[in-house]
Design brief:
Number of domains: 2
Number of helices: 6
Structural class: mainly alpha
Radius of gyration: 22 Å
Distance between the termini: 33 Å
Helix content: 55-70%
Strand order of the largest sheet: 1-2
Largest sheet: 2 strands, antiparallel
């Protein structure tokens, strides 16, 4: 995962090399007259696409767009333009496998949640037997704590992975003999 963004001191900060990458360079170039627009676009990309973002729990992308817009205080009429969409696509292409698996798990849990909401316990088949017997529902409900626990564990693992990579990067140089001596 490339680490172009960080959330620090209540704002999204970027590494200087971000402006060397074509999708982000376009955002800066097209917003030279109003750098605040570039700042909003970059913040939007972070909150929408970065695995560390608090908005990642929102599975539906159009709902996430609206939530991020509202959170950033962007106008109701604002929507991601072509440059922002390209930058998001580019940035998301660097997601680690653990982040993609976490995203897939969230989708599966959300589908289960929606399916449980839509079950009509009064439905019966042509023989008058319930389509959704109580024991099926009970066994499904028993899976939920395990799914939630696994999802939380996956989030912790991803966050730990991101933190450990950030510590390694952290702008520090390795000390002499840190990797041992190869003779």
């Amino acid at each position: 995962m490339i680490k172009l963004f960080r959330f620090e001191d209540f704002e999204v900060k970027v590494e200087p090399e971000i402006w060397l990458l074509e999708p982000f360079k376009k955002i800066l170039k097209n917003n030279k007259k109003n750098p605040n627009n570039a700042k909003n676009d970059i913040a939007f990309i972070y909150f929408f696409a970065d695995p560390r973002s608090d908005y990642q729990y929102i599975i539906d992308k159009s709902s996430r767009i609206e939530a991020v817009k509202q959170g950033l205080g962007l106008p109701e009429s604002w929507k991601p333009n072509k440059d922002v969409e390209e930058a998001i696509k580019f940035y998301e292409s660097f997601k680690p496998v653990s982040a993609m698996l976490l995203e897939d798990t969230r989708v599966a849990v959300d589908k289960l949640r929606k399916a449980l909401k839509e079950i009509d316990f009064n439905q019966v088949d042509d023989k008058g037997k319930p389509i959704y017997p109580l024991n099926t529902l009970t066994s499904t409900i028993k899976l939920i704590p395990t799914l939630v626990k696994d999802l939380n564990e996956a989030e912790k693992t991803l966050n730990s992975e991101i933190r450990s990579n950030a510590k390694m990067r952290g702008g520090q140089e390795k000390k002499i003999f840190e990797d041992g001596i190869n003779l």
